[in-house]
Amino acid sequence: MEPEAGLSESSGSAEPPAGSANDVETTGGAESSGGSAGAEPSVGVSAGSPVWRRRAFWIAVPAALLVGLLVVVLATSDSALQRRATSPILGGLAPPIVGQTIDGEPFDLDDWRGRWVVVNFFQSTCVPCIIEHPELTAFDERHAVSGSARVVSVVFDDTAENVREFFAVHGGDWPVVSQGAGRAAVAYGVTGVPESYLVAPSGVVVWKQLGGVTADGIDDVISRLS
Amino acid sequence: MSARAFSWLAALLVAAAAFIYGAVDDGPPRTNADRVRELSEDFACPVCAGQSIAESDVPVAREIRRQIAVWVDEGRSDSFVRDQLVAAYDADIDYNPSGSGITSLVWILPVLAGAAITAVLVVTLRSGRVPSSRPISSGAAPEALSDAAPGMSSEASLERLGPDEPRHSQATQPGRRRLRNAAAWIVVVLVTAGAAGLLVARFSGSRGADSSISGEVRATVRELVFEAQRLLNEGDISAAIAAYDEALEQQPSHVEALTYRGWLTSRQGDSAAAAEFLDDAIAGDPGYPDARLFRAIVALEQGDGSAAAAQLEAFDSLDPPPFAEDLLARSQVRERIAQARGAAALEALEALPDDPPPFAATSLGVADMLAAAEVLAARGDLLAALQLLDWVLQSIPGDAEVLAGWGWLLVRSSDPELVELGTGYLDAAVDADPRNPAALLYRSFTRWQKGDSEGARADLEAFDGLESRPPELVALAERQGLRAALRG
Amino acid sequence: MSNAALGSAAVVAGLAAALLGIVVTVLGLAGRCRDVHRYTRQLTVAMAVAALAAVIVMERALITRDFTVKFVAENGSSSTPPVFNVATLWSALEGSILLWVLVLCGYAVVMAWKFRSQAADPMVGWAMVVMFAVSAFFFVLMVGPADPFIAVDVPPGYDGPGPNPLLQNHILMAFHPPILYLGYVGFTVPFAFALAALITGRLGEGWLAATRRWSVAAWGFLTLGIVLGAWWSYETLGWGGYWAWDPVENASLLPWLTGTAYLHSVMVQQRRGMLRVWNLSLVIATFALTILGTFLTRSGVLASVHAFTESGIGPAILGFFAVVVAVSLALIAWRGERLRSPSRITAPVSREAAFLANNALFAAFAFVVLLGTVFPLLVEAFDGRTISVGNPYFERMTRPIGFALLFLMAVAPLLPWGSQRRDGSEHVAQTLSRRLIAPMWVAAAALLSAVLAGARGWAPLLAFGLGGFAGGAALRQTLLAVRRHRWRGLVGRSNGGMIVHLGVVLVAVAFAASQSYVRQAEFDLQVGEQASFAGHEIVYLGSAVLPYDNRTERVAFVRVDDAKTYAPAIASYPFASQTIGIPSVRSTWRDDVALAVLQFPQQQASADSGDAFDGGRVILRVTVQPLVVWLWLGGIVMAVGTALSLLPSGRRMRADSEAPPASRSSAAPVAAGAA
Question: Residue ranges per domain, chain B?
């Protein structure tokens, strides 16, 4: 027995079975006559096209609303490249920097509590780091006498030999942490070099700079905050 | 039972057995490196476009990967790693959206959508079973669901439930009851799915304190080494070696694993490979006594007495592990080292001209000479041994160490005269240096053997009172039962 | 005439042809001018010629390094190797739109030619209008925000930077984008017919029959494109993975999911006349999702490695997406009363019920992927927080759906249509028990051999078991068909579909195995040093510096398992700030050993010492993954299966003769053209 027979029987309507594409026109015609005529369902004769139209409408409207919402969100979204979150460590206690300097001395940031500390993450081969280096040197010398502010550099993805050479060439005699630097970089959320943080005497991170710093710029921040 | 039913049963049994065995059996342990990789995949590289830390190769990603590896080696949990990274880089570094707050919707919505789709499917398939003779008009409600439902996109299906009601309200009395039923079902489905979604969000949206999404950590290096020790104690050498290898794969510099891997290798007869492992271990931690001891034994096996002696000396300066004495005694390490030392010293002596210069003029050491004398005596040539010591004594007359050695050679001979003579030498040694451990202990032995328990005990007490007691002497006292005898 | 002017002229000509095509065809449909539809075909050809001319001009500019064209100045380079020089066209945004348009016009021409005998049919007419309209939109993009033919003045001696280094170091880059576009764009044809069906009100099965082959072909191309893309990223990115749930990857997966759902549900409509709204929605959704994917890839809203650079093209594409969805939904709402289907499912355990479940699963899959992809944007819009949704979410949420789909894949092809009891034959449970016993044994064998081979863990084992089950079912059907019909048992929709299923099983099993049993470690090796890892011996033999036209490579020579020597490298391109790793992969049927150089630690020190590179240490990342090769093989099998299912099967052949064929998709006036 052909399934179609059972199928048309089960649908129980007088319509010719749709599905054979030959019948499309007739089926469509029959339905459209019902659809165009009927505002109210005619019970028992047809399934009621208005019901179907309403139903299609109620499917389409929420779908349209959802897609519209999506479009609005997409249209108003910033470009992914412009989105940059502020650092979550700002305003919190400075993450610890414990390790060894390139000269083999132990270093602990907490020993410097009570001073302003510029924490500078850098790499010996990065050009902006080389450019900002004189500024750090100037800043360090400016505060060398009073001792109120100090600089510590933290090596990022580099070897101690390269860094030693870098400091030999470019000067600067503040501590440069190499051992334990990776842990510190990840704790500060460093994303690239150079990147600098200012730690207040209270031990709170108060300022962050992506890219090179200037001595005056740091002093400005310090005077603004103290 | 028909053949097909039997076949089904057999196939299901095979499949179930294999599955259960494979799912329950632990299999090879995951390594820390694997955990690092999986964790890295779960965090976004903070400066890259849509790449995870695992994918990206920029310096930051490399640095974070390295740090994750450190944390993993420290045995930190996933949640610890997450918290650290989020504290430093903010929440958007975490690819696993949190299961609380607005972000939990990303977990809940799919579950709700899945439930809605399932409900619609169930309704559709059930409604298909209504008697086919029913006129289509009265079947409006179920049919409505059956045909409209698949036409909805999954997100629309939720929205649709509300606005649909007016249509139902036009229905007749049975229609209203159906509506009530449908509403009840909708509520049930929504509540169940909502609860399920919350559970999913709760379990997926966080990293448990000790569980880890990065996969169950079956064994840290520590656990592996522990396991290997256990296997070793059970005598399952090959399994222990496998466990140590596993540990070394994770942490190639793990001293304990290196040490024992080397030891087991030497037990299998490959001294050269064993020496390599042990040298690595010693380089990693020069203060690990086990490595020193094993290295000494391996050096002996390689016939390198002086290296063995050096290792043993280093070992003696450390806290010995509890099994050390037993192992030393069992493999007669000290004796063999002394023998090797003596043999080497003899060779050095033979290299001297027939008319030897005074002992002091050579670069030979007293301990080496004593060892050489022991070797000569052991060969039965007591005379040569005594001559040798005599030659030494000519340069350093009255040296307690040499005198003690001399006496010790003599008292061990069976000739009572020589024993008497030896006793004299021992007395002279103690007189020369009352704090010489060898002289004290040797005399204690001699007195004990002569039945002079009092004297023996006094000497032993004096020996025990010394600050530095050479371990080989301590071992000798233990081994020969001197202490026990005197105590009893 | 300069290349820029020629190209611009071609683009404008193409736009004119497209607009004219809309006008002419609509006039013809309105009955204003009889026989005007004859010009439709000529206009598609004109449009395609214009697009082809634009592409040729651009390729000429690229090959001759005509840096007066901005696109060439920005993306071309005199040092790019020839193959990648051609491929530079689709390595940047404007060129990729150009390729898109060429493919679209190509489809339009083939469509107009295929349906030439029914050109007067309103449905075909409206479909052509939609094709013209979509083409016109993309031509407008090229006239406006994505103009590839902007002329620039460059100083003499200027040389361009070349395409993104990642896009010019693997040959797959020459194939993956065009094939992917053939897939994406191919779904425009079914979409055009779906809209035409809505407009004309002929919502029966005619439009389905007309577009079946088009959808299948587009799906096949999309599948192949995605697999090639995964392969490319595996071979070039060097982290040992091939799928990272990146927004752009998801954007290609979404239309694939809805398209796959459509290919299955369309059978239900053709056979039983059900699911009309659903099928329309799926076709429309598939097309809309390709547009959305285009937006996500090209607007810079979502961060992705695969994304093109940010441009002003985003709002235009988003607007087009909104228009597509709005028009489609309006049409569906308008035609609501005609969408009632004449029958419904009568048996809960039947082929059509299984298809329904299949569609529900694919819809859920697509929802999960779409939600995860856009969720960060939603949260940011409503909550202001930035979050990320990635690997853990997608893995956890899609895994159960994948399992369910594999199970259905085993059972559904063996289920009879409708309710069989009425036919007086055996109960459906008996039918299943008879047909499923062989696949069950395959599943048991797969599980057993996997466990014996050392596979552990419930998830991969479940995947292997279900994969064996589904593969066994597909194999059974194929074998039965071949036994009955010889080689003809391999062609035609259902037989080709079973081959595709086999490919899917291969991909699923390989995916589960490679994801579950991947091992990775980093080694710091001296020259001559050996490392053993996951059953493989790796020896670092040394390194060398190799200068190329467009890059300099520092190559590490690594011997794997005493066999061949492999040469992973780090390449530096003159215009790229970063170095690019070039991994090297040793593939066997069992597992892959992927080698990637992370660093030559003494690089800085020895860089000064000239080009003689001493070798020294290397930090090598070794990734060992089982069965990776089978992913690509599975993809190829899927493509072959798709091709087979497109071949005419002659007469109707089915694997299960006890379910006699009951074809309802017969020759509609429209369908004849497609056959």
Answer: 29-96, 102-129+138-204, 221-331, 398-487
Fold of A98-225: Glutaredoxin (3.40.30)
Q: What is the mean pLDDT of chain A?
A: 73
Residue A49 has its nearest CB partner, among C337, C380, C422, at C337
* Cβ B438 vs Cβ B404: under 8 Å: yes
* CB proximity A10 to B under 8 Å: yes
Q: Which amino acid is at B66?
A: R
CATH 3.30.70.1400 fits B29-96, yes or no: no
Report the residue from C332, C333, C338 with minimal CB separation from A28: C338
Q: Which of C 300-329 lie inside 8 A of A, CB atoms?
A: 300-303, 310, 315, 318, 321-322, 325-326, 329
**Of C176, C200, C29, C21, nearest to C111 (Cα)?**
C21
Contact C200, C334 (CB under 8 A): no
Write the residue in B88, B133, B156 that is nearest to A88 by C-beta.
B88
List the domain boundaries for chain A. 3-76, 98-225
- Cα torsion C141, C198, C267, C132 to 10°: value is -30
DSSP per residue, B130-159: S-TTS-TTTTHHHHHHHHHGGGS-HHHHHH
Give the nearest partner residue to A182 out of B46, B47, B63, using CB atoms.
B63
For tokens 């530096």, what's the residue?
A: C572
pLDDT the model gives residue C638: 95
Q: Residues near C610 by Cβ (< 8 Å), separated by ≥ 6?
A: none
Backbone phi, psi, residue B218, to 5°: -75, -35
- Residues contacting A134, CB < 8 A, separation 6+: A170
Question: What sign does the dihedral C596-C601-C604-C607 (CA atoms) show?
Answer: negative
Q: Which residues does residue C584 pair with via DSSP β-bridges, in sequence order?
A: C595
CA distance A202 to B158: 54
Alpha-carbon gap, residue A172 to A157, rounded angstroms: 20
pTM of this structure: 0.74
User: Closest Cα of chain B to C618: distance in Å?
Assistant: 15
Q: How confident is the model at residue B227 (pLDDT cuts 50, 70, 90)?
A: confident
Whether B29-96 shares its CATH topology with B221-331 is answered no
Are B458 and B434 in contact by the 8 Å Cβ rule? The answer is no
Q: Is C61 exposed, middle or buried (0-12, 13-18, 19+ CB in 10 A)?
A: buried
- The CA distance from C33 to C44, in Å, is 19
Residue type, C156: P
CA distance A99 to A76: 46
How far is residue C99's CA from residue C546's CA, in Å, rounded to a whole number? 34
Are B93 and B85 a contacting pair, CB within 8 Å? yes
Q: Is C670 on the interface with A (CB under 8 A)?
A: yes
Distance from CA of C233 to the nearest CA of A (A): 22
CATH 1.25.10 assigned to domain B398-487? The reply is no
Question: Other C-beta atoms within 10 Å of A70: how many?
Answer: 20
Return the SS3 of B397.
coil
- The residue whose two tokens read 């069950």 is C440
Better-scored residue on pLDDT, C255 or B241: C255
CA neighbor of A68 nearest in space, from C372, C368, B155, C130 = B155
Distance, CA of B242 to CA of B233 (rounded, Å): 14
CATH number of B221-331: 1.25.40.10
Which positions in chain C touch B128 (Cβ < 8 Å)? 344-348, 353
| Distance separating the N- and C-terminal Cα atoms of chain A | 93
CB atoms inside a 10 Å sphere around CB C430? 12
Residue A113, Cβ density class (10 Å: 0-12 exposed, 13-18 middle, ≥19 buried): middle
All residue ranges of chain C with pLDDT < 70 are: 1, 32-34, 36-37, 303-311, 340-346, 419-426, 576-577, 602-615, 649-675
Q: Does B83 touch chain A (CB under 8 A)?
A: no
